[in-house]
């Protein structure tokens, strides 16, 4: 018991520090976050306390109001913090990959399965919805990347549905903040064993970096890598 209490006490300061850091980061993008959270907490608590006086139970309703005010404040803080984080990530290279890494259980993600010299990139996620190719970069350029990668997927795993998404704010594109929700809404057509089999077949392909034709052994002196990075397949 003593060890568990010690571990819990050590974890609490870390959590509080993380919450404080999240608040500071959110406040940089959302200047009104403090006023909003205070208003949500005070209004929620005030409403329940007023109801308590009206029905003759101010103590009980006051306690309930305090708990619900804390819960409401936490929910609002979480949503605004998430919105601020996505706002800061929007348009940054690799933002889609960061979202895919946190999509949740049941998904296996592989970043940068295809890339061009302009650093437009396609990421791959495999789950019960099938294969999802997520592209970020110039919409006109990534279409050819997506088409080539989708053709390769259909050739290797023809029995698995392949979806393609382009992250952006234009017509027909998916906003970064809606990427996770959009993927989770895709119909589930594969079973767990089928997902495992699909991953095993795709794992043989490797990712973009593992497929680069680098020479074995130490790099010769004076040798330079080609400019622009690897080409998409």
From TrEMBL:
InterPro entries: DUF4191. Keywords: Membrane, Transmembrane, Transmembrane helix. Residues 210-233 are annotated as: Disordered. The chain crosses the membrane at residues 33-53, 59-78. It holds the Pfam family DUF4191. This is Membrane protein. It comes from Streptomyces aurantiogriseus. The lineage of its organism: Bacteria, Bacillati, Actinomycetota, Actinomycetes, Kitasatosporales.
